[in-house]
Every structure is written in C-alpha cells, then in structure tokens.
Amino acid sequence: MKLAYHTTVIGEPQPLAELVPVMAEAGLPAIEAASATVRWFKPDIEEQLDRARDALALTGLELYSVHATFDEELDWSNPDEENCELAQGMMGSVIEWSAELGARIVVLHPGRIAEGETDAGYVERLGNNIAPLVITAETEKITLALENMPYEREHTEVMAQVARLLASERLVVCLDTGHAHINEGLRRALEVGGEQIGHIHLHDNDGKSDQHLLPGEGNINWRDFMPFIGPESEFQGAVVLEAHRPESVSLAELHEKMCDFVEGRGMG
Ligand SMILES: [Zn+2]
Hints:
The protein has 268 residues and is of the alpha/beta class. Helices cover 40% and strands 15% of the residues. The chain has helices at residues 16-25, 45-59, 81-100, 119-140, 156-166, 177-182, 186-193, 226-229, 251-262, and strands at 2-6, 30-34, 62-67, 105-108, 143-147, 171-176, 197-202, 238-241. α5 (156-166) links the parallel β5 (143-147) and β6 (171-176). The two termini are 20 Å apart.
C-alpha cells in the first residue's frame, strides 16, 4: 500500500510545476494532481508538461495519479453520441498527457445515470463508453480508476460491475471513502468493490454532505476500513488523502498524522 496526497491538501489549485516543490519540501512521498493543476487544452500544454516533469525530476516527488475533471465537455459517457465522441477524444488526450507526466493512474468520474435508465443499462452504457479509453490506457500503460459517487445510484457496486465487464488490468475502481459513507456505507462498498478496488480516495464526513474532512473528523467507522489496507490485505494500490487541510496543521504534520493513521494508530 502506498500513501499519497491529493493536491487539494495545499488549498487553491496552482500549476502543478509550482505545487511539486512545496509538496516535496514537506516530505510527502507521492501525490495525485487535481485536474485544475494543469490547463489541459491550452496551446502551451507541452510546455506545462515539461515544467511539471522537470519539477518532479528535480525533487524526486512521485506523481502517482491524476484526477481527470468531469465537467460536461469531458462527459465520456454522455448519452448524446456526438458529445460523447468529442469528450472521449478529449479524455483520451488527458490520459496520454498523464502518461507523459509519468502518472500510473488516471481517476475518472462516471456520468450520471439517465432518467428511466436501469442499473444494468447504466453499467452497459458506462462499459461501452469507457471501452475506447481503456484501449488508450492499455497503449499508454496507465490504469484508469473509475470512482464511486455520492449519488444514490452511482455507487461502488455499479463501478465494480463496469470493471468486471471490461476485464482489463488497466481498469480498476477508485473507492472514495467519503462518497461511500454518504451513499451505501463504507463497509458495503468494500464488500461489493472487493478486488476491483485498485485506488482509494480517503476522506471523512458526517454521512450527509461531501465535506472532505480528515479521517476521524467525521463519523466514518474506520475500524471497517483498516483491515482492507492492513498488512493482511491484498490491496496493492494507493491510499490518497483527498481532504481539506485545516490551516493549523502543516503539510509535514499532516504526513505524520497520516502515517499514524494508516498504521492503525489513529490520527495522532
Ligand atoms: Zn474522490
């Protein structure tokens, strides 16, 4: 199990090349870049990637994963065919650029279930629409992680079904602990996600809203979760802290607290 930090722990999104030295300086081992840390479709994209790659090489910080955005123009599962194809092309570029940065994972949000659509129909549509992206990921040797959402029917089980349907080593489920807590519950999500889970977004909340709190600040029962990442578990992926950092906690202190947490000693 690898511990990593989403760039949200810094606060406002800044260009990746500027965040890397700050996060490396604090001793963080690996990071996940928020989509907003790269301006993806601007003419200077290759320069941005070069700068970010230079910063990573200079500091030795690992860019483990990239969180792709999900706004309407990037809706790779849009029921409208034309929009869908356009978005798939754009997302394909994001996957290739993330591979150029040396990332191992690209996190994708699924589109929303359509009105009147059955769960099985939703799984089939997501499966069909993610298939070309999985081919790109296989070519680029990068893994896609399909994230469970905090909406009633876009839960972990359907994401695991999509992953099983595609049956590619390059498609896993990103289990978001906070989203699962609001939705089906973390314990259930772990059961139904099972071995499809290859990436984890770690944060806490009150079970009602997606607060992105540090573990222990909400009411998730972490005892259900710890065995999943513990020494006995087969989980090989990363646990990415995707929480807002209180101003009173420095990045280095945050890392200390997280090391305690993943080793089962609470939040320090
Ligand atoms: Zn997440």
